[in-house]
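Suppose a colleague, Dr. K., hands you the sequence of a protein chain of 141 amino acids and asks what its three-dimensional shape might be. Before reaching for any lab equipment, you can write down a predicted structure in token form. Begin with the sequence itself:
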Amino acid sequence: MKEPNDVIIRSVTKVAVVIILTFAINLFISGHHYPGGGFIGGLAFASALILLFLSFDIETVLKNIPVDFKVLAAVGVLISVLTGVGSLMFNVPFLSQSFGYFNLPVFGKTELATAVIFDVGVALAVIGTSITIILSIGDDR
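The predicted structure, expressed as tokens, is then:
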């Protein structure tokens, strides 16, 4: 059987994935002060990977992205839980956050908060879980 010629969809996918990943990073970063954060940023990131799975072959994408998504989800949950437990070590309520302003070389005066660490854990858990679900559905033939 002849392979289909998917040059146009693969070319458009390469551009669309870059746009979606840029938007996912924007959603993640702006989530502390505006709508967004780890959950929706992780879903947007996962949607870019799902688009790659649909346009290219799942095996091809997984060969180029050697990540075990079950482990990624577990690491994300662990980071989120440890962020909450870390606040208990300082005798403050569970999931209390702390923040400060720092002068970073490129960015200048920047606010850094511990809530970002929690959001990183949530994003990793969402990416790992959603891609694991998609891969398990895709492997069911």
